[in-house]
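Run log, item B.
One chain of 325 residues. Sequence copied directly from the ordering sheet:
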Amino acid sequence: MKLRTPGLALLAAAAVMPSGAALAQADFPSKSIRLVVGFPPGGISDVLGRAIAARLTQSLGQQVVVDNRAGAGTTIASDIVARAPADGYTLFMQDVTTHAINASLYRKLPYDSVKDFTGVSLVAFTPLMLVVHPSLPVKNVKELIALAKARPGQIAYGSSGNGTILHLSAEYFNSVAGTKMIHVPYKGSAPAVQALLGGEVALVFSSMPPAIAAMKAGRVRALGVTTPRRVEAAPEVPTISESGLKGYEIVLYSGILGPGNLPAGVTAKLNAELTKLVGAADFRQTLLTAGAEGMTSRPEEFRPFLEREIAKLARIVKESGAKVD
């Protein structure tokens, strides 16, 4: 699949529908829209969700309200959206956790992670940054791999908890590199980064803002980013793939979903608005501040994208041993 960057062609008009449905879609939106976020305020999904809600409110002429429904690893929020009427008035700020990870992490979910949702558009992606404590005698990924192989079971990495993207990124690293670094889970990404700064663990796959701040302050050494190309927020930091672990890639994507069977006309209108939004200069600056970059997709591209991500993360989840009943 070829994902679009801002400025490329929009999706064509929807297929023919009954006149009543077509009229309802033509009038969309005629009332406020709820944008459900599965995380508490302050995180990257909340920041992006609020930025998107504010801009859609202006362009659509109806209030778009962020509804934070944190808990149960985002499955509460996912279930709310899956059960909502398929009319476009309940949308979901989803990311790699809500679908690609949870589809395999949880033994049973009350919804189908693909069939019960309609993809509207991807909106952004952000890497993780592999950062190490300055006391660790490595300056690049190749040296880290060599050291970890020389000290199996002795190098500890921190994460935001079992089954989280920080945990799975490190386990994926272990799998691809053939290393055996030890997992130390914390209750969130902030405590994990603080543990690194305090020398409790040797390394962390961190989200961008705290990693960049710590790197600039000289408190950590950045070895690489998890995306397939370098990122604008830290162009001096190589990708992990180019720095010694070819093929390694973890992308934290964010997108907008609706309930399953969302009408094509509503989906197309939202997709067009999101495509314009992601291409706007002010939104681009919001993304850069959060260490993210914009990306868009056509609705028909979203489902196969989710299916591929679910399959990829399923292998990593299995290898990590993480599971939630």
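Observations after the first pass:
- Residues 132 and 203 are 4 Å apart (CA to CA).
- Residues 5-20 have pLDDT under 50 and may be disordered.
Flagged for discussion on Thursday.
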